[in-house]
Amino acid sequence: MTSTARTVWTPSADDVADTNIARFASWLRETRGLDVGTYDQMWQWSVDHLEQFWAAVWEYYEIGDPVPDDEVLIDRRMPGAEWFPHARANVAEYILRPRSDDGEVAIVTVGETGAPVEITWGGLRRQVASLAATMRRLGVREGDVVASFLPNIGETLVAGLATASLGAIWSGVGQDYAAQAATDRFAQLEPVLLFAADGHVFNGIPRDQRASVTELRSNLPTVRHVIGVTRLGHGLDDTIDFAVAVGDDVPFEPVDTPFGHPLWVLFSSGTTGLPKGIVHSHGGVLVEQVQMLGLNWDLRATDRYTWYTSPSWVMWNTVLAALGAGSSVVCFDGAPMATGPRSLWNLVAEQQVTIFGTSPGFLAASQDAGVRPAAQHDLSALRIMGSTGAPLPERAFDYVTQEVGDLPLFSMSGGTDVAGAFALGAPNVPVWAGELPVRGLGVAVEAWDDEGRRVVDRVGELVVTHPMPSMPIHFWADADGSKYRAAYFETFPGVWRHGDWITISDRGSVIVHGRSDSTLNRHGVRMGSADIYAAVESMPEVAEALVIGAEEIDGGYWMPLFVVLQPGVELDDVTVSTMRTRIREMASPRHVPDEIIAVRGIPHTRTGKKLEVPIKRLIQGVELAQVVSPAVVDDVSLLEDFRVIAAQRLDEVRSRMVPQDG
After folding, report:
1. pTM for this entry
2. Residue ranges in 65-178 assigned as alpha helix (H)
């Protein structure tokens, strides 16, 4: 792999000298006597000496008073590692420390219609302080859960920061989720307060969410108050208006929370049953995000950062964290190609974005539409691009190099589970096409074979052999920790197994081959099959269904839905349309499959579990004999049906890759 990797970007010596990571290395040399001038040296030191590394991050970024190395990590067990037991940290307090002038812009909200709305740093501090005071008057206390059903707008960031400042626990989804999908997540948490909007404009269509908010409120009996945001001009009945809630001029009084205090609940994709609530801590998120954004993404107070995301996805949480560098952020509430394939590029140009994050799907769509970003827009401010959510094919790197400019495109792998990154880019390391240049600092990532042996230049399971401070402190409603252990630690006890196939090169770069489990991962957003099954299998025409999402060899992503119909039912246009509509309304537009295919049966294990992963691997071209043992399958003959479908699909993909004459 090393000999064939193509370099698509290389930092100059001057560029490297002017990076945050170079300044951090100099500080380590001056204060610790360490020589870790290259990324490889720093990474190796960071995983060999976890306590020293995280103590240095804590001190360098002035999160709190210096902490002795022997008080950083008291217990290394996974799960159960105990970080910074005597330290205090509050995310909102840290983010809102004065780093920029009050009159400078902190947040810009851009929608598909209307003018951008700016919040200055002074305005942000005032709004968060006022909203926190309002929430306190409404009875929100430390440890209470606050739920949010808001789009990607500045008000969502204000609400998240106010919640964190109180020591309450935040949990949010975007309005791309149907009310039932939001209920499946929030009802577990028993929130006391709900933030909601009357709707928003998406892909040129006003999406009135008043009925969804009413349904959601009726499904959440513990909610005592609702604070409403008006986006479509309708407003919400029986709510406290957000503008009123942030209207007072009061002191900012954040709670002094312990390092391990719960910050937010993010959710797993819900592949099996209800989505699992993943709880992260204030301190764990802070130390992970400040070093990841500061050192790997080179984020500075002079930057303007945006990631195309939804509050349902962990990348929204990085937008919130980016404020901690004193940088400004842009929240885009809309579809990426609402007014055409150049919509999002136009936002990057108009807002003078310096760090722009997106997904492989968006880059592929831009390329296929013939968009030439640098030729058609002023991208002179843009200096770094990022992509996450799925493996990034080589052609995306070539597209950015040729049509965006001489800047790094950092593919990143990590996510909801750790609120951070396992592998990503670095400003002092070249970028190779199709690869993630480095492993995250302080993250002991390895590739293991089935026997638990480390492999290099071979495909293996992504594992993390030492604890990270941003690993979940627990799952919600998992008193004995059994769900948490089952999610990550059963395959290799005491070692985190993430569920990705990766290859680590002898240079330390990483190639992500896709999920080794059955999580759907479409357009950069992980989703669960359970929401789709709930919509389709409740139809009287459908006996059973199976959905998979497969990364394909040409860089595409195919998400077919296989359905077993009841006797006498045909898969005609009306039935297909009904299925698509139900999925869109009961889950979200992102859950709608690329294709719906009728099959005679769905294969299961003998314990009744659908064979999602084996079918996915078949679709990706793996031989039938290698994907599953016939001894564990309830009806082996059904596998042959899927093998035929997989072979046909693979032929179609290969035909797309053959250059056409003329």
Report:
1. 0.84
2. 91-95, 121-137, 154-165
